[in-house]
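> example.struct
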């Protein structure tokens, strides 16, 4: 585990050989809902000794339809994220979309996330890097893993070496994504930890209804494959009732299915660790 990740998780008791988890709702829908999800997942991760980052967007800018839910108000949502940091002693990650948002969000969270569609936006990357926060860059659906080194170089050029890359699938036609698992080791060769986003990778974008579809029944399949191919972290959007989630419900994992999945993934990770020890 990279030193900056050890610092990030220093308040948690975890298995140093474990993968880490970034999980939570797509967006802050309410204080009560965000708190309940954070409380549940943080307790499970403590029990399973998995390093945990709570994730939720304080605002959703990348929406298909103008009528789609975007948030409850920037400062209100950011203050809820800050409360979760303090109350549950977990780091928090949220998306940003502009250089101005980097300055706005940085005081409230530990990790600033660059959405996949924006991973080449130089001004955004530099503004995020200059906050001194950890930066998680989602790989663009239109890019190969090796091409992400240029985004990483924009961050490290500011002397911020705290970078994560997240694989989230590659555009396949107009309404589907595929995952090329070669991108995990390829992006690791850049010298940064790699996360697999197993929920956005199952989106079916550009639906004529204006609402993104998805294949959440395959979340476990992608998560297992990601651990088997060496991903250091997993990114999972989850909700107690995805059918009423206000954003990305079609590709989210029902919350009650998360802990059983994590238990399965721990077994795979332990088997891989044992195999590596025997070599």
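> example.seq
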């Amino acid at each position: 585990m990279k030193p900056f990740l050890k610092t990030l998780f220093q308040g948690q008791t975890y298995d140093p050989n474990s993968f880490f988890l970034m999980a939570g709702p797509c967006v802050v829908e309410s204080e009560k809902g965000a708190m309940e999800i954070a409380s549940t997942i943080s307790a499970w991760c403590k029990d399973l000794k998995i390093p945990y980052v709570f994730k939720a967007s304080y605002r959703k800018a990348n929406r298909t339809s103008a009528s789609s839910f975007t948030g409850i108000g920037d400062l209100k949502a950011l203050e809820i994220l800050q409360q979760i940091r303090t109350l549950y002693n977990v780091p928090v990650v949220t998306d940003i979309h502009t250089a101005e948002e980097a300055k706005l969000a940085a005081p409230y969270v530990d990790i600033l996330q660059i959405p996949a569609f924006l991973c080449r936006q130089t001004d955004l990357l530099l503004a995020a890097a200059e906050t001194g926060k950890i930066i998680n860059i989602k790989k663009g659906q239109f890019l190969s893993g090796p091409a992400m080194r240029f985004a990483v170089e924009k961050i490290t050029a500011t002397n911020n070496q705290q970078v994560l890359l997240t694989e989230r699938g590659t555009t396949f036609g107009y309404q589907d994504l595929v995952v090329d698992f070669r991108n995990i080791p390829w992006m690791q060769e850049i010298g940064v930890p790699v996360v697999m986003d197993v929920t956005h990778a199952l989106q079916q974008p550009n639906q004529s209804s204006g609402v993104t579809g998805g294949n959440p029944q395959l979340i476990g399949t992608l998560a297992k494959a990601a651990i088997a191919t060496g991903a250091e972290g997993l990114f999972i959007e989850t909700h107690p009732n995805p059918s009423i989630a206000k954003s990305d419900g079609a590709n989210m994992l029902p919350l009650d299915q998360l802990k059983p999945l994590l238990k399965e993934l721990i077994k795979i990770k332990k088997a891989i660790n044992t195999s590596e020890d025997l070599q």
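> remarks
The chain has nine helices and 13 strands.
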